[in-house]
Each structure stands twice: as C-alpha cells, then as structure tokens.
Design goal:
4 domains, Thrombin, subunit H, alpha+beta, seven-stranded antiparallel β-sheet
Length: 461
C-alpha cells in the first residue's frame, strides 16, 4: 500500500471513529450542553442578585425548667416535704434558620414562625458577614410565618412573584443556610401544588419541590429563574431528617397577605364560619345514608355564627366552596383561613341526598372566650389564644383571669396558666379547645404550663 493510500485509510478510520463518538449519548445524570440548539444558561447571574436578600437567622430563648420533673407534681413535693416552688434551672435554647428581605427600605424580613418562636433575642447575619439585632414585628403560627425587622444600610430585597401562576415542572431554586454551613443554593422543579394535610392544624397550601431543603433552610427563599420570590421554604418530609426530595414552601401570594397583616396589626385576623367538621369515612357515610365519598361533614354549628345564620346544620356535608371541590375537613379549614375577612362563601351542601347551595359570610374569629361558654366547670375563667412566640415559648390557650371564689378557681385554675392539652388532645389554639369541649367530656384532665412547669389537673363531672 502506497503512503498516499495509507493516509487516506487513516483519515477514513478517524472520521468514522469521530462520528461514532458523537452518536453515543451523554452518560446518565449529566446535563446536555444545549437544548434545541440553545446553550444551557448558568444560574450564577441570577443568584448574584438573589443571594444578598437571603439572610441567616439565629435566635436564643431562655426558659426555666425543673431540675427534676418528678418533683413538679405538688402532691409529690408535699409528700417529700420539699419547698412549694420546685427547684429549677435556666435552659438556653438556640435555633438557626434563614430569612428573606422583602422590603429593603424598612428592613422587613420574612421567615418561618418556628425559626423564631419563643425567642428572647433574634440575630440576623447578612451575606457580607455583618450582624444586626432584629425586632419581632409579628407571627402567625397558622401559616408558620413571621416578620422581623432590622435597621441596616444598603439592604437588597427580593421582588415577589405571582405564585398562582406556578405550574408543575417549572424550575425553581432554594436558597438558605442548611446546617449552618453558609448560604447554599439547590435547584429543582415544582413537583406539586396545593399540598395539604402536612401538619395537624393550620392553614396549608404548600408548593412541593425536589430542590434540596435541609435543616437551616427554613425561612429561606424559593425563587424562579428570574430571581423573584415564589415561596418561603418551610418543611421537609424525610425518614432521616435530611432532604429526601420532598420539600415544601409557603406560596408567596399567601406569604404576602400574611405579611401585610403582621406589619399593620402584629397578628392575622381571619374569618370563620363557626363550624366543626370531620372527614367523611365510609362507615359514617353508610350510617347517614350519604352517597358521596368525599367532603367535610359538619358535626357542630356554633350559636349565632355565620353558619347558623345561613342555615347550615350538623350532618350537612360540604362538598364544594365557590365551585371548588372540598375533599375533607382540612380543605374546609383552609378555605376559611385563606379567604378574605368579610367575604361570602357559596357552600355546596349535601343534606340527606338533596343538593343545596348555602351562602355564608365570614366574620372575625374571636380570640377570647368565657370559660362558662366552653364548660361549666371553667366558669369564672377568661381564656385567650397564646400562639407560639409568647414569653414561655409554648402553643396553647392562656387563662387570662380567674375570678376569686369561682368554680374555675375552686378547680385549681389560676391566671397565667396555659392550657396545652385536654384529655391527651393538644390544644394549640382556642379553636381546637372549643372542638374538644364540644364533645362534652365527663372528666377533664387539663395539661397546663404554669410558671414554666408542666402540670396536670383532673376535674370531675
């Protein structure tokens, strides 16, 4: 073979080899260099704008706890001849999380309520390393949101996007401070929308994402590819405590509404129909002759409530609100929590097989109750909501006052007690406490926080 022929053969072999290499697909798990002829963009320019608006939050709380919880029981103290006030020590607790600057001029920062709940001191650290003491503006345990404020020059805020326009499959980026390692960014997609039933109570309307969210990310930003805020990272589902691809964020639309009320009033005022409801089980449906398989079954209608005035009755099955299906009791609670105060809800109701439409107007939920209206054994006591973030760092209902010589006083209740449970059922707010007492329990076992100690009081019928 001549040298020229040999050269032509070598060129043919090289060309075939190159064609073969180009035909081999990229290894699994790697991103292509281009899609539809367009090179993949870098997230770096967007993150450069977003990062200064995401902050680290550290909070510190001081609580007194019993040296030995065994001696918190007054009977045990009396038996062993111990002082009336049990010995205690100071417990210092620290919490780490993230936050998002949403108003640079005023220094307002959105974060999770659970990041700063019960805190005596809140410290905010910016990406430039400077730290500032923060002021608590307001909290809303129902949505797990809080607003704090710092005074600092040159702050950068994130614009809020319209989270109602999110679609499953949209790309998002989670920014925060996981495990206290420093600010980090993880990317993924929106995996689901309108996620509910993730907590036992509260208003829930979560965005689900597979962008990694880990401890410390709470309160951080979930942004779109434009760098606008679409959600506040709030919680994860994980068997190990670390990210398992199931992260959840509070939509920016909901966060914005809550933030405006917290800034204006320090709290959120919500509307209520004045009903208790439960999920519809197949057994209950069969017993009541209900053919529907989903809905919120009304179990109690409070006197003089919007529901009572509209004609709603126990046994009614709410199947829709304003044309949107209601699948369970949590759905109905969400509708009330998300709808503007004073708005009218068109309830689709199944009453004994008859389809009805009942209009009811939401009125403000009272955060105060007379003990006698809950149970005669609490007569003389006045109770108010004590959301997370109170001075004792607990969720419950505070007994504000107890009249001297009243039945509540004779049953051992005192002003300042916080009712955290009744008959082993948690009572984080007045609404839940009303639900428990609506069952008319014969014997009451009240779990109370009194002067930082957990005590139980049993009250007979």
């Amino acid at each position: 073979m001549t040298s020229a022929a040999h050269l032509r053969l070598s060129c043919l072999i090289a060309t075939a080899a190159l064609a073969l290499l180009l035909a081999i697909p990229a290894p699994a798990g790697t991103l292509p260099e281009a899609v539809n002829g367009q090179p993949l963009p870098s997230l770096a320019p967007m993150l450069a704008r977003v990062s200064p608006a995401v902050v680290n939050i550290s909070s510190t709380s001081h609580r007194r706890v019993a040296v030995n919880p065994f001696f918190s029981d007054p009977i045990m103290r009396q038996f062993f001849g111990l002082p009336a006030v049990p010995p205690s020590r100071e417990l210092v607790q620290q919490s780490l999380g993230s936050g998002v600057i949403v108003d640079a001029k005023q220094g307002y920062i959105l974060t999770n309520n659970h990041v700063i709940a019960g805190a005596d001191e809140i410290q905010v650290t910016l990406t430039d390393g400077k730290s500032y003491k923060a002021k608590l503006i307001g909290t809303d345990p129902q949505t797990d949101l809080a607003v704090i404020q710092i005074q600092a020059p040159g702050l950068v805020a994130l614009p809020l996007a319209d989270s109602s326009k999110l679609r499953v499959g949209d790309f998002v980026v989670a920014v925060g401070d996981p495990f206290g390692l420093g600010q980090s960014a993880t990317s993924g997609i929106v995996s689901g929308l309108q996620r509910q039933d993730l907590r036992r109570s509260g208003v829930q309307n979560y965005i689900q994402t597979d962008a990694s969210i880990n401890p410390g990310n709470s309160g951080g930003a979930l942004v779109n590819l434009d760098g606008a805020l679409v959600g506040i990272n709030s919680m994860i589902y994980s068997p190990s405590g670390a990210s398992a691809g199931l992260g959840f964020a509070i939509p920016s639309d909901l966060a914005s509404e809550v933030m405006q009320q917290l800034i204006a009033h320090g709290k959120v005022v919500r509307g209520s129909l004045g009903v208790d409801a439960q999920d519809l089980s197949s057994r209950v449906a069969a017993a009541l002759g209900i053919k529907a398989t989903r809905g919120a079954l009304i179990t109690n209608v409070m006197p003089d409530s919007p529901a009572a005035k509209a004609g709603l009755k126990p046994g009614d099955l709410v199947t829709s609100v304003n044309g949107k299906p209601i699948t369970d009791a949590q759905d109905l609670r969400n509708v009330q929590g998300l709808a503007p105060l004073g708005s009218t809800l068109a309830l689709g109701v199944d009453r004994g097989g008859r389809a009805l439409t009942i209009d009811a107007k939401l009125t403000a939920v009272s955060n105060q109750a007379d003990g006698a209206s809950l149970d005669a054994r609490l007569a003389g006591a006045t109770l108010v909501d004590a959301p997370a973030g109170d001075d004792q760092g607990v969720e419950g209902v505070t007994i504000e006052t107890v009249a001297t010589g009243s039945r509540a006083a004779r049953n051992g209740l005192a002003g300042g007690d916080i009712v955290v449970g009744v008959n082993n059922v948690a009572t984080p707010d007045l609404a839940q406490l009303r639900r428990v007492f609506a069952l008319h329990p014969r014997v009451l076992v009240l779990s109370l926080v009194r002067e930082g100690q957990l005590v139980q009081i049993q009250i007979g019928g």
